């Protein structure tokens, strides 16, 4: 059944100026949803509506807002399987992964339920008598949240849940190719008791979204931008926000390294590399980019890794597979361009390259009707190669070698991204030296580059982001502003730094 989806502003369906067909990438003849696309004016209107609604929402006590977040979590939990199956159908993510993504929303809600009672400020001692100092967290106002579709429900929850909990209103622009999943999540949020206008959902293409965001910033109806997507688009949003003296929350791409030390447990490292590189068909911001393997174990590791990749199940995401199809035709087109980066000095050790078809099957799987591609491992990658330096969103992993840990760290940092990283070692000294030297915001030891928990900070540096963090208590700094207050009850004007209390040379106290 094809869903009909439009934007919702202030609790009412908004007009559309165009349409988009969200396609099942596992069966491209199947339309999952017909999506009505809004224009820049609708986005700007949503921000005005949200600004009005936010004033009343902010007056709701934070513990009560927390109970709404708890209701969202329970509704997601009750509808977990159907929501996960919709995610699988719309973007081709294997069902087990889609169900894990839905559970991430529940974890996020469970954590932030408690934060409704822990939006702590501080009581600070004054340098003057009869004076008290306080700090408070205030909501920022309206947050414009723009998200990608590779995690169509989990990643948005990282923004929506804390933003709403803190007393903000949100205008959410999901990816068009994951519109049905996003709309289903929106309906759950509204059903939990959110007032009209506190959360609006707007479907629009990139150009209209950018124009609408620019209008809203000029009008002063947006006080925070959250963006998950490519580094290229993130830099443009960062520039736009900077012109309006705002600091956005940017979660961007990655070229995530995995270092394999000589003392690594190789079977475990192979398992981690397989999941990191090819889970979700390599379409995570935290997907493995390059394996940096010590020269002494290079041959043994690559032989095991190549064998594991060749044996991995790629196919129908409704089944028990490592990966399904690519998310959308535009990502398939882009991935085919990445394959042209393979050079004569490279060695493909994983088998066939390109789309899975009847002429190029994966054992008995022909990929008929879907955007399925062979997973690719390229050995012999050099530090000057595009395949080493640039993000490749899809099922392709490079392999290079190193002689010392210092060299491995230098190679890991060279591309200039800084999202996720991993090291396989049994020596704690290697693990801590790697942690100290790596520029990534997240480090795994003997684990994959992918995988986040709801109470740990998530985010990157360099080309991967502007240092902002999502998840856990750290994200509260994205959706609140610190306010200080001083209360003088001395009955006279006390001037800071001028009338400060002092201690005399004979230790006698004086004012």
Automatic annotation (TrEMBL):
<dbReference type="InterPro" id="IPR044638">
    <property type="entry name" value="ALDH7A1-like"/>
</dbReference>
<keyword id="KW-0560">Oxidoreductase</keyword>
<comment type="subunit">
    <text>Homotetramer.</text>
</comment>
<dbReference type="GO" id="GO:0004029">
    <property type="term" value="F:aldehyde dehydrogenase (NAD+) activity"/>
</dbReference>
<keyword id="KW-0520">NAD</keyword>
<dbReference type="Pfam" id="PF00171">
    <property type="entry name" value="Aldedh"/>
</dbReference>
<dbReference type="InterPro" id="IPR016163">
    <property type="entry name" value="Ald_DH_C"/>
</dbReference>
<dbReference type="InterPro" id="IPR015590">
    <property type="entry name" value="Aldehyde_DH_dom"/>
</dbReference>
<dbReference type="InterPro" id="IPR016162">
    <property type="entry name" value="Ald_DH_N"/>
</dbReference>
<dbReference type="InterPro" id="IPR016161">
    <property type="entry name" value="Ald_DH/histidinol_DH"/>
</dbReference>
<protein>
    <recommendedName>
        <fullName>aldehyde dehydrogenase (NAD(+))</fullName>
        <ecNumber>1.2.1.3</ecNumber>
    </recommendedName>
</protein>
<feature type="active site">
    <location>
        <position position="251"/>
    </location>
</feature>
<dbReference type="InterPro" id="IPR029510">
    <property type="entry name" value="Ald_DH_CS_GLU"/>
</dbReference>
<comment type="similarity">
    <text>Belongs to the aldehyde dehydrogenase family.</text>
</comment>
<feature type="domain" description="Aldehyde dehydrogenase">
    <location>
        <begin position="16"/>
        <end position="484"/>
    </location>
</feature>
């Amino acid at each position: 059944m094809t869903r009909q989806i439009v934007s919702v502003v202030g609790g009412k369906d908004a007009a559309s100026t165009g349409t988009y067909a969200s396609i099942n990438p596992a069966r491209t003849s199947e339309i999952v949803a017909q999506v009505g696309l809004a224009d820049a004016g609708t986005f700007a209107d949503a921000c005005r509506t949200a600004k009005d609604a936010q004033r009343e929402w902010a007056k709701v006590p934070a513990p009560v807002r927390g109970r709404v977040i708890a209701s969202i979590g329970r509704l997601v939990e009750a509808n977990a399987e159907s929501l996960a199956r919709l995610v699988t159908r719309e973007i081709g993510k294997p069902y087990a992964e889609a169900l894990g993504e839905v559970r991430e929303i529940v974890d996020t809600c469970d954590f932030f339920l408690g934060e409704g009672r822990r939006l702590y400020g501080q009581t600070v001692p004054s340098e003057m008598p009869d004076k008290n100092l306080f700090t408070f967290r205030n909501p920022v106002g309206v947050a414009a949240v723009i998200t990608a579709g590779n995690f169509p429900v989990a990643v948005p929850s990282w923004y929506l849940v804390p933003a709403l909990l803190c007393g903000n209103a949100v205008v959410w622009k999901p990816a068009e190719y994951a519109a049905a999943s996003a709309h289903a999540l929106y309906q759950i949020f509204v059903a939990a008791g959110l007032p009209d206008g506190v959360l609006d959902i707007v479907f629009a293409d990139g150009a209209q979204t950018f124009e609408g965001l620019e209008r809203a910033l000029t009008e002063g109806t947006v006080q925070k931008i959250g963006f998950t997507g490519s580094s290229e688009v993130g830099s443009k949003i960062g520039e736009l926000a900077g012109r309006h003296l705002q600091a956005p929350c940017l979660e961007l791409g990655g070229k995530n390294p995995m270092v394999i030390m000589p003392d690594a447990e190789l079977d475990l490292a192979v398992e981690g590399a397989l999941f990191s590189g090819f889970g979700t068909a390599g379409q995570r911001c935290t997907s493995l980019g390059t394996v940096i393997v010590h020269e002494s174990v290079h041959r043994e590791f690559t032989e095991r890794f190549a064998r594991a990749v060749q044996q991995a199940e790629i196919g129908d995401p409704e089944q028990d597979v490592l990966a399904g199809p690519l998310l959308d035709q535009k990502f398939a087109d882009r991935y085919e361009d990445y394959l042209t980066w393979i050079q004569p000095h490279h060695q493909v050790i994983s088998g066939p390259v390109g789309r899975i078809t009847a002429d190029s099957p994966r054992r008995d799987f022909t990929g008929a009707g879907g955007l399925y591609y062979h997973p690719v491992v390229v050995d012999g990658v050099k530090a000057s190669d595009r395949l080493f330096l640039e993000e490749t969103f899809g099922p392709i992993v490079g392999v290079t070698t190193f002689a010392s840990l210092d060299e491995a760290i230098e190679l890991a940092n060279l591309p200039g991204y800084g999202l996720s990283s991993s090291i396989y070692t049994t020596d704690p000294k290697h693990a801590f030296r790697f942690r100290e030297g790596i520029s990534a915001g997240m480090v795994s030891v003997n684990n994959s580059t992918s995988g986040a928990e709801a109470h740990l900070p998530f985010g990157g540096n360099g080309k991967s982001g502007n240092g902002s963090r999502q998840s856990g208590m750290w994200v509260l700094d994205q959706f609140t502003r610190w306010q200080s207050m001083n209360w003088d009850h001395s009955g006279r004007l006390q001037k800071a730094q001028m009338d400060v209390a002092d201690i005399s040379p004979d230790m006698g106290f004086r004012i």
